[in-house]
Write a structure and sequence with these properties.
Number of helices: 21
Structural class: alpha/beta
Number of strands: 24
CATH architecture of the largest domain: 3-Layer(aba) Sandwich
CATH class of the largest domain: Alpha Beta
CATH superfamily of the largest domain: Alkaline Phosphatase, subunit A
Strand order of the largest sheet: 15-16-14-13-17-11-18-23-12-24
Helix content: 25-40%
Strand content: 15-25%
Radius of gyration: 32 Å
CATH topology of the largest domain: Alkaline Phosphatase, subunit A
Distance between the termini: 90 Å
C-alpha cells in the first residue's frame, strides 16, 4: 500500500484544517502507556480510571507474555494472568461494565512487539473465555481490544474477527471499510515537533499538531500522541491542540489533575476598574501620620499574578511603584504559619508556630497596636474571616496556641485596639467569662452585629462581631464587606489628630490556597485588591498616610501554567495544601514608601514602622 510522506500529507491537510469541537477531557481520557512496567500492572491504571491501558506482548512457548523486550520476560507475567483474568473479575463485579460507573469506558491496547501472524491467533484463543467482556460489536459496554505495534496491513483487517480493532497511523491511507476497523489514530510526537512538553511549541509546530489531530477527527477517529512528557503543562497543551487520549506513565497523577481541574482554572470575563494613584506623596521624606497595613493571608507573587491576569492585566496592587520582599520563616521552623508569621510583623521578633503574640520564651510581647498607642495613635483591626484567627489575633492577644479562640477573645479586653471587625460571634458572646461583653462595654466599646449597624456609628470604640455568613467566601456571595469595613474604620479613626494604625486582613486568600481552589484564591485576591484601592485613594486625599501591603506567608505553592490576560483566564497547579517558605512581597505607597524596598525578615516591617513614629 502506498503511503504519503509526512510533508505531502501536511500539504493535503492544509485544505482541511478545521478541528472538530471536542468535549473536555477527563481522567477517563488517560492512556496508561507501557502499563506492564507499573509495579502493579493493570490495577494502578484501572483504579485511576484510565480509559485506555496498554500492554506490550511477545509470544513465547505458546503463551503471551507482557514485556517490552524478549529479555525482560518474567515467569508468570502473562497477558492472561496480569490483565485478562483480573479485568474479567472486575467486569463481573461491576455488573458487566468495565467500571462501576457505567459512563466510564475502557480499551485494552495490545501492542504486539513482533510476529503478529502468530500472536493474533494466540490472542484470539485467549480471548475466547471472555467473549462477553470483549465482544464490542454485540455489547456497547464491552472492553475494546485494540491492536497496536506490529499489525496486519489494512487490507488484511477483514481477515480478523470484529472483536478486535486496530491502532491507525495518520500517514496510512484507509478505505472506508478499513477505517471501520480503526479504533484510534496514534503517532509519535517527535514526528511533528521537538517540543519537550515545557512551555509551548513554535507556531509552525503547533499548526502541524493541530492539523494531524484535525485530520483524524475528520475521519471520525480519536487521536493520541505517544512519547510525550508527563506534566500538567503537557496535558494542558495537548488538550488545547485537540488530542482525545492523554499518554501517561503516571495514571494516578493524571487522575488527580483532572479531578481537580475545575478548581485549577478560572476565567473572569469582565475586569473591574482599578484606581489610578496620583503619586503626589509617594516616596517623599515627610511625616507619616497614619499607616494602613493590608495583609493578604497566604498571598504570594503567584497569587498576585493570577489576580492580575484574571483582571485582564491590571490590579490596584501592581499600580504601586515601591516593593520589597519579606522572609517569613518561623523561629522553630523554616515554614511559618499565620500565628508566627503575623506575630513577627506585630511584635518585631521571630516566634514559634502557633504562638499568638508570645516570644519563644513563652512570655508576652508588646504588639504594634499597644506600642503605637503610646504615641497617641488609634487603631483598627479588620478581617474578612474569624476575628480570633491567628493573623488578626496577634495584634491584640497573647496565647501559646492559636486554637484558644475563647481565650483570644478574652484578651481583647486588655488591648488598645479601638475598632475590631470580623466574624466569630460565639467566642465573644458565649465566652467562658460571662461578663466579657459587659466589661467591654464598661471600657467604652459599642457592640454591632452587622455591617449596616457599624456604618451608622460615628464615633467611639467599636466591637463589630459579624455573623459567620457575613464572611462567607466572595464566590459564595460575601460582597464588599472588607472594603466597606476599611472605609468606615478610616472615617472613624481619622478624627484622631495624632493619627491611626489599621490592619486589614484578606483572610480567605489563604483558605483558597489550603483547599487548592484557584477560583477561591483569585476571587479573594480581587476582593483584597479592591480594598487596597480604598486605602490608596485615602492616602492620596490625606497626603500623610503610608499604605503597606504584604502577606504573612504563601499558601499552596501555587504555580501558574497557562494564562490569557485578554480573556481573564488562568490555569494553575498547587504543590501543597499547606504554607510554604517562599518569600512574600511587600508593596508600599505614600511617604517613606522607599523604606520598604529590598529583601528583609518579616520582623523588619515592625521595626520600619516603629522608626517612622519614633523619628517624627
Amino acid at each position: 500500500m502506498k503511503k504519503l510522506s509526512c510533508y505531502s500529507f501536511f500539504a493535503l491537510l492544509l485544505l482541511a484544517a478545521n478541528v472538530q469541537a471536542q468535549q473536555p477531557l477527563s481522567f477517563n481520557s488517560g492512556h496508561s502507556h507501557n502499563d506492564y512496567k507499573q509495579n502493579i500492572p493493570l490495577l494502578r491504571a484501572y483504579y485511576a480510571g484510565m480509559g485506555s491501558i496498554e500492554a506490550d506482548v511477545f509470544l513465547k512457548d505458546g503463551q503471551l507474555f507482557v514485556a517490552h523486550e524478549l529479555k525482560e520476560i518474567k515467569p508468570g507475567a502473562t497477558l492472561l494472568k496480569q490483565y485478562l483474568e483480573p479485568l474479567y473479575r472486575l467486569y463481573k463485579e461491576n455488573g458487566n461494565h468495565p467500571y462501576a460507573d457505567p459512563k466510564l469506558k475502557l480499551q485494552l491496547v495490545i501492542d504486539i512487539k513482533e510476529d503478529h501472524e502468530h500472536v493474533l491467533p494466540a490472542l484470539l484463543k485467549e480471548l475466547k473465555p471472555f467473549q462477553d467482556m470483549v465482544n464490542k460489536p454485540l455489547n456497547p459496554d464491552a472492553v475494546s481490544i485494540v491492536i497496536s505495534g506490529d499489525m496486519p496491513k489494512p487490507e488484511n483487517f477483514k481477515n480478523y474477527p470484529a472483536i478486535i480493532s486496530f491502532d491507525g497511523r495518520p500517514t496510512t491511507v484507509y478505505t472506508d471499510e478499513q477505517l471501520e476497523r480503526v479504533a484510534m489514530i496514534s503517532d509519535e510526537l517527535k514526528h511533528y515537533t521537538v517540543w519537550n512538553g515545557k512551555g509551548t511549541p513554535t507556531q509552525t509546530d503547533a499548526d502541524k499538531l493541530k492539523m494531524v489531530i484535525g485530520a483524524a477527527h475528520q475521519k471520525g477517529k480519536p487521536f493520541r500522541f505517544w512519547a510525550t512528557q508527563d506534566s500538567p503543562n503537557t496535558w494542558l497543551e495537548l488538550e488545547k491542540f485537540g488530542v482525545d487520549w492523554i499518554n501517561t506513565d503516571a495514571p494516578e497523577k493524571l487522575k488527580e489533575f483532572y479531578l481537580r481541574k475545575d478548581k485549577l482554572t478560572y476565567t473572569n470575563p469582565v475586569a473591574y476598574p482599578v484606581y489610578q494613584p496620583t503619586y503626589k506623596s509617594d516616596g517623599l521624606n515627610k511625616k507619616v501620620k497614619n499607616i494602613i497595613l493590608l495583609i493578604g493571608d497566604g498571598m504570594g507573587l503567584a497569587q498576585i499574578h493570577a489576580g492580575w491576569i484574571a483582571n485582564h492585566g491590571n490590579l490596584n496592587i501592581t499600580m504601586l511603584r515601591n516593593s520589597g520582599f519579606s522572609q517569613t520563616a518561623a523561629a522553630n521552623s523554616g515554614n511559618t504559619d499565620s500565628a508566627a508569621g503575623g506575630s513577627a510583623i506585630a511584635m518585631g521578633e521571630k516566634t514559634n508556630n502557633r504562638y499568638i503574640g508570645m516570644g519563644t520564651d513563652d512570655k508576652k510581647r508588646t504588639n504594634l497596636v499597644d506600642t503605637l498607642a503610646s504615641y497617641g495613635l488609634k487603631s483598627g483591626i479588620i478581617s474578612a474571616g474569624d476575628i480570633t484567627d491567628a493573623t488578626p489575633a496577634v495584634f491584640y492577644a497573647h496565647q501559646l496556641d492559636r486554637s484558644y479562640s475563647e481565650a483570644i477573645a478574652a484578651d481583647f479586653l486588655n488591648s488598645h485596639v479601638d475598632i475590631l471587625v470580623g466574624s466569630n460571634q460565639k467566642s465573644f458572646l458565649q465566652n467562658p467569662d460571662a461578663s466579657l461583653l459587659s466589661k467591654l462595654e464598661n471600657k467604652g466599646y459599642t457592640l454591632s452585629k452587622s455591617l449596616s449597624d457599624f456604618k451608622l456609628k460615628d464615633s467611639g470604640k467599636q466591637l463589630v462581631l459579624l455573623p459567620d455568613s457575613a464572611t462567607r467566601p466572595v464566590k459564595d456571595g460575601r460582597g464588599d464587606m472588607l472594603a466597606q469595613s476599611l472605609k468606615h474604620t478610616i472615617k472613624l479613626l481619622s478624627a484622631n489628630k495624632k493619627g491611626f494604625f489599621i490592619m486589614t486582613e484578606g483572610a480567605q486568600i489563604d483558605y483558597g490556597g489550603h483547599v487548592n481552589d484557584l477560583k477561591y484564591v483569585v476571587t479573594e485576591l480581587h476582593d483584597f485588591d479592591k480594598t487596597v484601592a480604598e486605602a490608596v485613594r485615602f492616602a492620596d486625599q490625606d497626603g500623610e498616610t503610608l499604605v503597606l501591603i504584604t502577606a504573612d506567608h504563601e499558601t499552596g505553592g501555587l504555580t501558574l501554567l497557562d494564562a490569557a490576560a485578554a480573556e481573564g483566564r488562568i490555569e494553575g497547579e498547587f504543590s501543597t495544601n499547606d504554607h510554604t517558605n517562599i518569600m512574600v512581597p511587600v508593596y508600599a505607597y505614600g511617604p517613606h514608601s522607599g523604606d520598604f524596598t529590598g529583601t528583609y525578615s518579616n520582623t523588619e516591617i515592625f521595626k520600619k514602622i516603629l522608626r517612622l513614629f519614633t523619628a517624627r
